[in-house]
Design goal:
Elements (H helix, E strand, L loop, with lengths): L1 H35 L13 E2 L6 E5 L4 E8 L6 E5 L4 E5 L2 E2 L6 E4 L6 E6 L8 E7 L5 E10 L2 E4 L4 E5 L4 E8 L8 E5 L2 E2 L8 E6 L4 E6 L8 E7 L5 E8 L4 H6 L2 H24 L1
Parallel strand pairs: 2-10, 12-19
Antiparallel strand pairs: 1-3, 3-8, 4-5, 4-9, 5-6, 7-8, 9-10, 11-13, 13-17, 14-15, 14-18, 16-17, 18-19
């Protein structure tokens, strides 16, 4: 009888040991599940959306040259990203949808990417200002981007009219002002036609994109080289100068450098002759 009770006792103890082991494993597994799938996921560290601050926050572009503002959001999950114009708090885009009648504004985003880009096509000076990238958390978070739209212009050194003597060189230097990026090209025109090097010898153009300058040299100019010369960069307003190549019988025009000064000199000379004539008549 004692052996029978002892056998049952061993079975019960084994069962208790087994159940204790199962409960312990279940408890461990339960903790593991809780650790990986918390009841409040958004309360965990770094689980809230946040901005990647390595993106460029200051952007300068020229009138008509598309602008891109890049906002990068980590851990976005199911939250929405919006672009807002700060000066009037106008919502421009939500997600990839445009929420303004101005279709120049567009949100660019690729699936799986953290980047939400605001594209502004054909920007004007009035589009300069602060734009906010906003995430629909509670409370909302936002990051500001500053856009500057400038008018890029070309400038030809010297007066708007140039008088030179036949046989001298035409030497024009063009500088591109207020451009964030070097122009991809700078063309020179005479009238409506691009200057063709094969038309005559002695023409050279030296363009330095990094310094945003271009130099046109026409050696031993002739009266046929007279005309309107234009410097036309790829992303800037053009500039022009009117060149007069004169023979030696027009020294006054070359001396004064432009037609307005020449006219003033002529008027002054006429006045002196009139005074001399009046003086001799009085005597």
């Amino acid at each position: 009888m004692k052996d029978h009770r002892g056998g049952w006792l061993c079975v019960v103890l084994s069962l208790i040991t087994f159940l204790s082991h199962q409960i312990e494993c279940a408890a461990k597994n339960g903790r593991s599940v809780v650790e990986h799938h918390p009841s409040s996921y958004w309360d965990q560290p770094f689980s809230q959306p946040y901005f990647d601050n390595t993106t460029k926050r200051e952007t300068t572009t020229t009138v008509g040259q598309s602008a891109y503002l890049h906002c990068r959001v980590r851990n976005l999950s199911d939250r929405a990203v919006s672009w807002i114009r700060q000066r009037d708090l106008h919502i421009l885009t939500v997600g990839i949808l445009t929420y303004t009648n101005d279709q120049r504004f567009q949100s660019l985003h690729s699936d799986g990417s953290d980047e939400w880009t605001l594209k502004i096509s054909s920007p004007q000076v009035r589009d300069s200002g602060i734009y906010e990238c906003q995430v629909s958390t509670e409370p909302k978070i936002s990051q500001a981007f500053n856009l500057s739209v400038v008018v890029s212009k070309a400038k030809i050194n010297g007066n708007s009219e140039l008088y030179i003597k036949s046989g001298s060189d035409i030497n024009l230097t063009c500088i591109v002002l207020q451009t964030p990026e070097p122009p991809s090209f700078i063309y020179w025109y005479k009238g409506d036609n691009v200057i063709n090097y094969s038309q005559r010898g002695g023409i050279s153009v030296v363009t330095e994109k990094q310094t945003r300058t271009s130099r046109l040299l026409i050696s031993r100019a002739l009266p046929a080289d007279s005309g309107n010369y234009t410097c036309a960069p790829s992303t800037a307003e053009s500039a022009s100068v009117l060149v007069h190549v004169l023979n030696g019988e027009h020294p006054a025009a070359m001396q004064h450098g432009n037609s307005s000064n020449s006219g003033a000199a002529t008027r002054t000379l006429a006045l002196l002759l009139l005074l001399l004539h009046a003086g001799s008549f009085a005597r």
